[in-house]
Specification:
By secondary structure, the protein is α/β, with parallel strands linked by helices. The protein has one domain (about 10-195): 3-Layer(aba) Sandwich (Rossmann fold), CATH 3.40.50. The protein has helices spanning about 30-40, 75-85, 120-130, 150-155, 160-175, 175-180, 185-195; strands at about 10-15, 45, 50-60, 60-70, 95-100, 110, 135-140. A seven-stranded mixed sheet has the order 2-3-4-1-5-7-6.
Length: about 200
Amino acid sequence: MAELSIDLKLIVGLGNPGSKYSETRHNAGFWFVEELANASAAQFRPEKKFHGELAKINIAGTSVWLLKPDTYMNESGRSVKSLLSFYQLEASNVLVVHDEIDLSPGTVRLKTGGGHGGHNGLRDIISALGTKDFHRLRIGVGHPGHKDQVVDYVLHRPSQDDRIAIDQSIRAALDIVTLLAEGSMEKAMHQLHTA
């Protein structure tokens, strides 16, 4: 079996723009790319043509774009597609970082492909790109217990204990970005999933 690999050019953090949403569970993807930018002393700058904020970092000798769509979650695909088209990138060059209600706070998982699992950001990206074949970093935020409560749940702040656990999982995921930039999805998964 061939080793799982990745040719990483773009990391997209999903979230909703504005201070009203900045601390809500749905913005875990934003939290991740903001931490990644901070670690490289990179600045996000508004880019109208990409419907979002963009930063550029260098990891293991590889230039990687960081994108925070400012379209609101359910139109994230427009932002991602515009950047891919402009730089002539493929879906396989993309890592989408998002909140995941099916994982408990403190848990973070990598995967390639798959459905949207009811996540509106993923749903819109799949629709815009016409493929599910991009990589995902799923940051666990926990589940409210009933599907009717999900929308309200992800648009609220996590408890203090949950936020600490989420922040710890983000730090663990930051540690595997170099492996991803070097192309080894398999090593990154092994390190992250066995930690």
